[in-house]
Every structure is written in C-alpha cells, then in structure tokens.
Amino acid sequence: MAAPKTYLNYVGGEWKAVSSELVEASINPANRHETLGYLQLSSVDDLNEAIAAAKDAKLAWRRLSAPARGEFLFKVANHIERRLDEIAEMMTREMGKTLLEAKGETARGVAILRYYASEGMRKIGDVIPSTDSAALMFTTRVPLGVVGVITPWNFPVAIPIWKMAPALIYGNTVVFKPAQETGITAALIIECFHEAGLPAGVVNMITGDGGVIGQAMADHPDIHGVTFTGSNTVGKRVGQSALARGAKYQLEMGGKNPVIVAQDADLDLAVEATISGGLRSTGQKCTATSRVIVHSEVYEAFKMKLLQKIQVIRVGSGLEAVTWMGPCASEKQFRTVLSYIAKGVEEGGTLLCGGGEGRGQGLENGFFVEPTVFENISSSMTIAQEEIFGPVLALIKVDSLEEALQIANDIKFGLSASIFTRDISTMLTFMNEIDAGMVRVNAESAGVELHAPFGGVKQSSSGSREQGQAAIEFYTDIKTVFIKS
Ligand SMILES: NC(=O)C1=CN([C@@H]2O[C@H](COP(=O)(O)OP(=O)(O)OC[C@H]3O[C@@H](n4cnc5c(N)ncnc54)[C@H](OP(=O)(O)O)[C@@H]3O)[C@@H](O)[C@H]2O)C=CC1
Ligand SMILES: O=C(O)CCC(=O)C(=O)O
C-alpha cells in the first residue's frame, strides 16, 4: 500500500504546502491504527494568503453572468459524480458513517450543486411601482464579496457544498476551512472544483486548527460573510467576532430534537423513525432524535417494540455491508458520548439497553458505542438538555399532548421536531406550538430536502435559513435601484 500522503491547502488555484511543515494524522475511527493521510496545520499567514487570493478573484467572478457561473457548478457536480465511490469510501474511512450513507450524502452533494447551478438562471429581483411615473424602480442582488465557510465533520460533503454552491452562484468567492477531522474528504471535493477549471482564487481551502484558522477567518476584515455549522459554543464566538466588525454571519448549531409519540400513533412507524432519526450516522446529526416523548397509554408497547429492533442493530466498520451503525467520528466524540451516558446514570436515569463501548470481534480498535436507550428521564437532567451527538435515546413518559409540548419546548434548542399521530387537530396544534424550525409529522426528525429552507429557532441557529432559495438572503445584499431618464 502507498504511504499516506499529506493533503495540501488550495490557494489561488494551486496546491500549497505550509511553511511550518506541521501536519496532523487523519485516522480511521473504526480502526485507530489506520492512518489515512496527513493534514497541514496552517498558520494565520497561510490563511491571509488564501483570503488575498479570494479577494483578487472576486471582481472577475462577480462580473461573469450567473448562468456562466452555473456552468462551472454543473462541471463540479459531474466530477464529483464520476468520483462518487472514491469520495464516499474516504468519508466512511475518515468519519465512520456507513458506506451507504456516505454514498447517499455524496450524491446529495451532486444534486445540491446542480440545483444551485440552475438557480443562476432564476430571477434575483422585483420591479416595484414608483410614485414617480417617469421612473423605474427595482431590486437587484449583489454578492457580499469573500465568504468564509467553516464546516463540521458530520456531513463532510453535503454541508460544505450547501454553503459553497450558493455562495458561488450568487457571485462570491470562497475561503473554506473544513473540520480537521474530515479534511481529506474535503480535499477530494476541492480537487473536483479544481478539475472543473474554476478561475484561480474563486475557491480556496485551508486546513488547520479551528481555534486558529476559524477564529482568524471570523476576525479578518476582508471576509465579508461567515457561514458556520458546528457547536453552539464555537458558533456564538464566530457570530460575535463577525458582528463586532460588521460582517454578515450565519450560524447553524446544535439540536436536542424531540419526537412525540401520541396515543393514536402508528407505533411501528414511530419506532422505525425513532431508530433511523436517532441512531443513523451514530446519532451525529444536528437533526438527530434524542428525546422520545411517549404518551403513557402506549409507552410500554412502544418501548418493547423499540428495544426489540435496537437489539438487532449491527455495529461495526461502515465499510462492511452488514453494518448498520458505525463508530463515533473521533476519540473525542467517543469520550464525550460515554461521559454523557455516565452522567445519565449518575442523575438517576435507567439504562434499558447499551450504555457501554461496542465490544466484539473487529470493534476493539475503534470508537464504537452501543446503541443506548434510557428511561426515567426528567426534562431537567443533563442528557435531556444537552446535545450528546451520539447513539443515545432518552424516553420520557407523558399523560397528554400539552405535557409533551411543554417538555419538548423546555430546551434552549429548536432545530427539528416530529410527532406521530393520526389526528389532524393534534398535528395542527403541534405544528403551531412546537419551538422548531423543521416540523415533521409522521416522519423522523432528521432528513433535509435540498430545495427547502433549513434552520432552527432559539439557540439552534442565528435565525437565517440555509438551502433552497432561502440561501440567497445570506449570500447577497439587496440593492434598491431607482432610475429616471
Ligand atoms: N450542528 C451540527 O451539525 C454540529 C454540531 N456539533 C456539536 O459540537 C460538538 C463538538 O464538535 P466539534 O467538532 O468540536 O465542533 P466545533 O464547533 O468545534 O467545530 C466545527 C467547526 O468549527 C471549527 N472551529 C473550532 N474552533 C473554532 C473557533 N474558535 N473559531 C472558528 N472555528 C472553529 C472546527 O475546526 P476544527 O475541526 O479544526 O476544530 C470545525 O471546522 C459535538 O459534540 C456536537 O454536539 C458538531 C458538529 C456538527
Ligand atoms: O438531517 C440532515 O440530513 C442534515 C443534518 C445537518 O445538517 C447536520 O447534522 O448538521
């Protein structure tokens, strides 16, 4: 086998080594002894070079017509599609999700690129009747300039693309700082941008420590907008730094998403959706189900069905076809999840299944956690309040819809929420009263459609929306034009 290579930064259309020569190994979370490659630990000087390249490229890029920019995005999509298996396999090796999920995510990246490529042909303004009959008044949209893109490791293809594609189609240039955890997958995506022949400097990528590179990006005067997905703590810091210098920012952060199982729910459907929403990707989605609020009349029946199905989940390397759930993405994440489980027990929760490291043949060298279900959880407990980002479900028993909604809303987050019921009035009450940006009825809490607005309320988001046509709001400024002959 070839020795693991060092993945370089991409600056001004070229692959660049950092002067410090500092690198960090990227390892396989299913087998900590497998090194996949090395990522550079860039300095602020390296970042400044990338920002300068993006700044130099921005005038020519914004002067291109939007359909012409779209042609580049179509080409990038074709290159990713051609390399889909390779990219998906690296994603699975680098962060652990199953190959099936990784392929699905990479295909979603292709679809997002094609969607925004086509957005380049859609209208970007309105004609507004002026009070002056001899004038023409209308709105148009202009790019922000250079956009800083800071992304997490849980969707290493879809999230960077759903930020970069709208940034580019609306005429911005990009400096991209991927999560160090999934820097190789990010580099493969950037190779596809390179292969598509984007003009030099339009897209740039810098790897390195988030506290250094991400923070410097948020502080840099030539970054006109910062888009971030990740933890609440870091997101708030990024937002404050951008706000302090008058730059635009967009934050997508945590979730603590509830599913409510009403007494008239289709229990089999609710169980399937709870498992898929809570445990797919090892629970590492901001939209993952983590609180399962069940009506007392169906609580025992739901619990038995849930436990039966969870018992047969196969945990293992995401590369193996029989695996349903892979490892946590990193040792840090693995330790965080185990410490939340310990906290749940310490605070009086009852473990119904799981609760420990995944054991068995082939699991000894990876960051595996058993699928875990707690009961006797009250809303004030830590595991009912904080984002765990792991395969852990907390069952909470309630006696009414009112109580379910009160518990579901008793949280600082508000990203996604779902309910299982057959009753239209229960659906409507839920839709109106739940604190969530993504409201789902008889469907799991995770799952996002690329052409619909995505985002949360409360501390899950900075209030803006990503994806679909909503993305134009962040990546452009409106100009109101008044023309008189
Ligand atoms: N909403 C979501 O989708 C996600 C939520 N999370 C939550 O966050 C927890 C911790 O995960 P973690 O990976 O540490 O998330 P972070 O918020 O630390 O990382 C997200 C991104 O921000 C970068 N970053 C880190 N520190 C800074 C900083 N000071 N300024 C600017 N950018 C920075 C990271 O870089 P680097 O990789 O170099 O650290 C990464 O690119 C998880 O357990 C989960 O609860 C995590 C990922 C996604
Ligand atoms: O549910 C999804 O597919 C997207 C989730 C997401 O955006 C995230 O976890 O960051």
From TrEMBL:
Keywords: Oxidoreductase. It comes from the Bacteria. InterPro entries: Ald_DH/histidinol_DH (IPR016161), Ald_DH_C (IPR016163), Ald_DH_CS_CYS (IPR016160), Ald_DH_CS_GLU (IPR029510), Ald_DH_N (IPR016162), Aldehyde_DH_dom (IPR015590), AlphKGSA_gudD (IPR054869). Residues 24-481 form the Aldehyde dehydrogenase domain. It holds the Pfam family Aldedh. The active site is at residue 252. Signal peptide: none annotated. PANTHER family: ALDEHYDE DEHYDROGENASE-RELATED. This is Aldehyde dehydrogenase.
